[in-house]
Amino acid sequence: MDAHGAIFKPGLREVRLRHAALVAFFLFFRGALAAPEDVLRIYVARHGQTDSNVEHRLQGATDVPLNETGRRQARELASRLAGVTLDAIYSSTLQRSRQTAEALKGRAPLEALAGLNEQSLGAFEGLYLDGREPRREAEFERRRADPDDRLDGGESANQHFARVKAAVQTIRDRHPRGSVLIVAHGGTNVKVVRALLDLTAEQASTIQQANDELYMVEVYTSRRRRCGS
Fold first, then answer.
1. Active site residue: 4, 55, 111, 118, which one?
2. Is 227 among the domain residues?
3. What is the CATH classification number for the domain harbouring 138?
4. Is 155 a catalytic residue?
5. Which of 9, 12, 33, 125 has the greatest CB tally within 10 Å of its CB?
């Protein structure tokens, strides 16, 4: 099986990442494409902006809504995917994700999956990452380096990845081919891409998705190799 990925980000140079038999292509988005019959095309979007994003605060499992910019970004996501025929849309159960996905309401069946929720950050939810809480910020940076640290009542990175990986597998089992959209979160989407491309945690750690970025990963269900451009 081959997997190809594309980040739809203006001006981003093409980079090729090879890992085992998997190839990820990071490309500038040039328009909507129809998925070949032997391909599952998975679009991965982050929710639109929230006030907590603007304030540089950790949201985690805290359920906060989109702000005005976020609602505009949700509408822009719908416009960017206007030429794509979607078989299904999946969001997390958190409202910032659901509100973004609902901008495409009526385009395909929409389902909220708890497996796509952002990592629960326990005692660190709501933490400012702008230097106003230097001791707590330093503690958070130190502790999140341990993939088994549950952050005082939250969820470890390994637990989060296992949950997201299971949700991705559920989606793939339901859709062996066609096109689906996943609308989730910055941390969750790193793990979605990691699961799809079989990346290590270290490889995935370089991925940082903005609120208005759209990724695409193609999963080929046949043995035939394909190259994108």
1. 118
2. no
3. 3.40.50.1240
4. no
5. 125
